[in-house]
């Protein structure tokens, strides 16, 4: 069944079964059913379930799925999790929620102890909770590199490209007022100056409902900074298109979630050229290994509406759901959360391209120290922060949309398909 805002009961969306039997393994999807982000996770999970069922299911059971719509609203997200837990009594939850929504339903997960995989949220504070209370947080896994890794990759980009190549010495941060925005802003602010040698001139926080960015861009220019670092995960097409239409005479990079999808160019009315953004991988402009390409081929044959290419979290959902089911097979189901957690921690999918490790879907272990940040990331997706990336893929890549509507990876250099450029109007 599908929970939608204001409804406890909706339409049945069980997969590959006309009737949902009690003995089936029931998966619950939680996320926005009207966003590219939410749909990417939902569809990745759907395809994984179809393939698993075609191969016989798990533990001799077929897998069905029900969905609960958050509308990207915190209150609705809490209701959605309660619906999946109490009404649908799901065995496993896969999330395409944004950070604030995940933080909203997290206490419910701790209460119900339902194994849950977050495919979009990257808030480092949740991973800190896992490290502090591993028993309470045993059901939770995040198979996207968390904020600290994201910020570390950007600091390297700042040093290697913005500072060394472009000669930028200072930045003004323009960030949305969300948990995601606060986390990224804090991490970047703390590291840009001491590590990349780039001074933070000012930080401008804006409401996610902002529709006129002219005063904000004017304030950014008056800071005297060399470039803008934006942090935008909600309605980020607006800040992008206004930046281009106003021809703001400063480079703008950072984190722009709308630029992670192939619909970005159309959504901005062709006013997206010059924007660069950090992106988890696989991203737009990122070459795919054969396994991931096979998933995309299946996806595009099955779905004709947007997003035409799944966002990174669609890949996370596809591979992650299969890993969660493999862990359940080993643990004898999802009821013994401790056993499932131990089996999930052992999941490690390595995908190669041209004989080289290209993508890795594995998890950091408890107590394992990442050598660059010198901290732990238990139950977080494994990433590699140093070239030549022979242990795992980089935590993120930087992609740039060109003024002709093309897009490519500009950093790290080992994965680059194009070079970082200033927009034509920036001198």
Characterization of this structure:
This protein is of the alpha/beta class. The protein folds into 2 domains: 2-146 and 289-350, Rossmann fold (3-Layer(aba) Sandwich), CATH 3.40.50.2300; 148-285 and 395-415, Response regulator (Rossmann fold, 3-Layer(aba) Sandwich), CATH 3.40.50. The protein contains 12 helices and 17 strands. Strands 1-3-2-4-5-6 form a 6-stranded parallel sheet. A 4-stranded parallel sheet has the order 8-7-9-10, sandwiched between helices. A 3-stranded antiparallel sheet has the order 11-16-17, covered by helices on one side. Helix 8 (236-245) links the parallel strand 9 and strand 10 (251-256). Helix 5 crosses helix 6 (179-196). The longest helix is centred in the last third of the chain and has 20 residues, at 312-331. It is globular.
Tell me how many strands there are: 17
Topology as H/E string?
EEHEHEHEHEHEHEHEHEHEHHHEEEEEE
Task: Specify the helix fraction band.
Answer: 25-40%
Radius of gyration: 21 Å
CATH topology term of the largest domain: Rossmann fold
Shape: globular
* Content-based structural category: alpha/beta
Total count of domains:
2
